[in-house]
């Protein structure tokens, strides 16, 4: 296997972009980080990491994964960050994490996608979403071309001064993310279907007496809130009435850690 892309995704954007790049590369292997042991890339010549930007940096799961994934000597290593507006210092954070292990990040690209942070805003209009997806496909082709050409040194973080203030948001974000689930609530619309439990990428949610209960190890990826089929999950009540967002190419089943076997 020549090309491998690891992905982490709560609502499908990063997974979709990873698959666009994989297709452009000519069928790179796609591996979900949440199911990866970390040694899958042993024979790969290029290793990509696709993930969403959280608070101007990396999701905590991705940080942890970069600290343990095995990268073969001489591989072209790159990041693809999807974001609503601003990548902050996501690629620099990835580069610094890898550098501590003696691994150089070759390049890092950012791809604008619909924002999924419902505590601040509802889903963008279908027209805007389509515009993002079309632009992301074009960008994925450019990324694949650059990966094939071994284009080193591209780091698409935010411009100054955003880059200067990003570390401050990072500090706050990193501290609050694991316990962010304290604000998650379930409304009377809950049908105890268990989708939320199954789509949580880190098994932070358990159904207790039919009610979702969060365990304090949240990634804040919004999967539980966005994939709930009856929109019964809220962050405080600030998300009440806001349109949910998930990438239209996927279903909740695509994000289940242990999907039901096909009949
Ligand atoms: C907790 C959280 C924090 C976010 N922070 C940022 C941010 O700092 N900058 C930004 O542009 N988008 C931010 N977003 C939006 C996501 O990065 C964006 O929608 C991403 O494409 C979602 O990817 P996914 O569908 O693969 O999970 C944030 C989303 C969440 C849930």
Quick recap:
With 263 residues, this protein is of the alpha/beta class. Helix content is 30%, strand content 17%.
> Count of helical segments?
7
H and E order: EHEEHEHEHHEHEEHE
Tally of domains: 2
Q: Per CATH, what is the topology of the largest domain?
A: Rossmann fold
Question: Which shape, going by the Cα principal axes?
Answer: globular
Which superfamily, in CATH terms, is the homologous superfamily of the largest domain? Answer: Flavodoxin domain
- Strand portion, in percent? 15-25%
The Rg value, from CA coordinates, equals 18 Å
Structural class: alpha/beta
The side-by-side strand order for the widest beta sheet comes to 2-1-3-4-5
Kindly state the percentage of residues in helix.
Answer: 25-40%
Low-confidence stretches: none
The assigned CATH architecture of the largest domain is 3-Layer(aba) Sandwich
Distance between the termini: 31 Å
What does this structure look like?
- By secondary structure, the protein is of the alpha/beta class.
- Helix 1 packs across helix 4.
- A five-stranded parallel β-sheet has the order 2-1-3-4-5, sandwiched between helices. The protein has a two-stranded antiparallel sheet with strand order 6-9.
- The chain is globular.
- It contains seven helices and nine strands; from the N terminus they run E-H-E-E-H-E-H-E-H-H-E-H-E-E-H-E.
- The protein has two domains: 164 residues, 3-Layer(aba) Sandwich (Rossmann fold), CATH 3.40.50.360; 79 residues, 2-Layer Sandwich (Alpha-Beta Plaits).
- Helices cover 30% and strands 17% of the residues.
- Strand 3, helix 2 and strand 4 form a beta-alpha-beta unit.
- It binds flavin mononucleotide.
- The site of flavin mononucleotide (FMN) has 25 residues, from helix 1 and strand 4.
- The site of flavin mononucleotide has 25 residues, from helix 1 and strand 4.
């Amino acid at each position: 296997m020549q090309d491998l892309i690891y992905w982490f995704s709560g609502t499908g954007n990063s997974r979709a972009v990873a698959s666009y790049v994989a297709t452009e590369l000519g069928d790179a292997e796609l591996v979900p980080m949440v199911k990866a042991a970390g040694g899958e890339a042993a024979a790969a010549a290029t290793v990509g990491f696709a993930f969403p930007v959280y608070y101007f940096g990396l999701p905590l799961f991705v940080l942890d994964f970069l600290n343990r994934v095995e990268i073969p000597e001489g591989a072209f290593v790159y990041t693809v960050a999807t974001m609503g507006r601003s990548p902050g210092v996501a690629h620099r954070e990835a580069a610094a994490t890898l550098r501590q292990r003696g691994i150089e990040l070759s390049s890092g690209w950012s791809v604008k996608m619909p924002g999924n942070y419902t505590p601040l805003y509802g889903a963008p209009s279908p027209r805007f979403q389509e515009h993002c997806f079309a632009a992301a496909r074009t960008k994925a082709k450019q990324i694949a071309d650059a990966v094939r050409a071994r284009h080193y040194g591209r780091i698409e973080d935010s411009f100054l001064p955003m880059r200067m203030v990003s570390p401050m948001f990072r500090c706050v974000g990193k501290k609050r993310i694991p316990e962010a689930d304290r604000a998650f609530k379930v409304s009377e619309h809950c049908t105890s279907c268990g989708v939320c439990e199954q789509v949580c990428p880190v098994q932070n949610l358990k159904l207790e007496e039919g009610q979702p209960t969060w365990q304090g190890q949240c990634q804040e990826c919004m999967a539980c809130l966005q994939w709930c089929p009856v929109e019964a999950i809220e962050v405080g009540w600030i998300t009440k009435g806001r349109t949910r967002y998930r990438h239209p190419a996927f279903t909740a089943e695509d994000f289940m850690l242990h999907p039901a076997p096909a009949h």
